[in-house]
Amino acid sequence: MNVLVFASRKGGSGKSTLAAHLGSYMAEHSRPTLLIDADPQGSLALWHQVRGAGNLPLHIGTKHLAATLAKARQDGVEWVLIDTPPNAEASVAEAIWHADLVVIPMRPGLFDVDAVQATIQVCRELKKPYAAVINAAPAKNGSDDAMVTDARGAMQALDVPTWAGQITHSPELSLSLAYGAGVNEFSSGSPGSEEIGNLWRALTRSFEAIEAVTGKHAQSA
Ligand SMILES: Nc1ncnc2c1ncn2[C@@H]1O[C@H](COP(=O)(O)OP(=O)(O)OP(=O)(O)O)[C@@H](O)[C@H]1O
Ligand SMILES: [Mg+2]
Fold this sequence. Notes:
Number of helices: 9
Pfam families: CbiA
Keywords: Plasmid
Bound molecules: adenosine-5'-triphosphate, magnesium ion
Strand order of the largest sheet: 3-2-4-1-5-6-7
InterPro entries: CobQ/CobB/MinD/ParA_Nub-bd_dom, DNA_Partitioning_ATPase, P-loop_NTPase
Protein name: Cobyrinic acid a,c-diamide synthase
Domain CobQ/CobB/MinD/ParA nucleotide binding: 5-131
């Protein structure tokens, strides 16, 4: 079972958005997945409510997280996606403690580059693998936009592993959530849908690399 935690102290960086779209992608590809909304704001839970009952179970809250994860493992869940709030509360550190990999979404820009450092510090203290994911980026025009290049440079200077791809800023990523859907369901084959698929494949490869180091069994694509 792969436990993926979305964390960043920067509000609006895309934690809930990526958790929802990846969850939807995994459900479509028949990967037994559990969503956990550990953010009292309840964005992921709201999306799930609009979505209605289906093939993507949701657990709300952080109480009994260890027991929830143990039950998920017993039930054969392959992927657990935990959305966290943009603060430094103990619940975030607890979620990170349970993570196999922490995804740190960041918009390309000075404030996000600055804000990710606090989350990275927690990951390093807890010795958890982590990766920054550039989200809501300007569209590529053959190569990365200058803002993305700058953000990558800053992450490299901080020695932060950063996904080589990007999630482009696109209305369909936002709009699909309003219908309780993922972009893969709402706009199959669109660039946004392709990017979410690329991110999932990159995460799968990361889990395989983690498995090679730790001996932990990861589910491959
Ligand atoms: N790639 C994207 N393209 C278009 N809109 C996006 C994208 N990523 C995020 N958004 C929009 O930006 C807003 C903030 O995103 P989201 O709620 O996922 O951030 P968050 O990190 O979960 O915020 P918080 O820290 O407050 O929980 C939402 O309205 C979302 O629809
Ligand atoms: Mg959120």
